[in-house]
Amino acid sequence: MAVTVLLELQVKEDQINTMLETMKAILPDTRAYDGCVGVDVVQNQDEPANIILIEKWESKAHYEKYLAWRTETGFIEKMGAVLSAPPSIRYFDPRDA
């Protein structure tokens, strides 16, 4: 079953542009990764350091495999240096309503 993943980031104020440029550079690989249906990046109008990735994956297992790959490459640790708080990852199932 498809899953929506919300990855919420609190970026250090002086690192916002760096984070956005990094996202532009890495998201083509994310979007091409097995199981990725799509990724959108949104930035909070009132708090620009708050950036959320709205991701659609074929399954939670696909996302977990992707996250493990990003961790193995060292990207997750590198990204941590520009964050002011740990990232929040939440998983949502679609519902008919």
Secondary-structure-based class equals: alpha+beta
Give the strand content: 25-35%
CATH architecture: 2-Layer Sandwich
**Most strands sheet:** 4 strands, antiparallel
Number of beta-strand segments:
4
How would you describe this structure to a colleague?
The protein is an alpha+beta fold and 97 residues long. It has a single domain (3-81), classed as 2-Layer Sandwich (Alpha-Beta Plaits). Helix content is 37%, strand content 30%. The chain has three helices and four strands; from the N terminus they run E-H-E-E-H-H-E. It has helices at 16-32, 60-72, 75-80, and strands spanning 3-10, 36-43, 50-57, 88-92. The protein has a four-stranded antiparallel beta sheet. A hairpin with a 6-residue loop joins strand 2 and strand 3. The protein is globular, with a radius of gyration of 13 Å. The model has no long low-confidence stretch (mean pLDDT 96).
List the defining traits of the structure above.
Alpha-Beta Plaits; single chain; 4 strands; 37% helix; alpha+beta; 97 residues
Characterize this entry briefly:
This protein is α+β, with helices and mostly antiparallel strands and 97 residues long.
SSE order and pairing:
Blueprint lengths: L2 E8 L5 H17 L3 E8 L6 E8 L2 H13 L2 H6 L7 E5 L5
Antiparallel strand pairs: 1-3, 1-4, 2-3
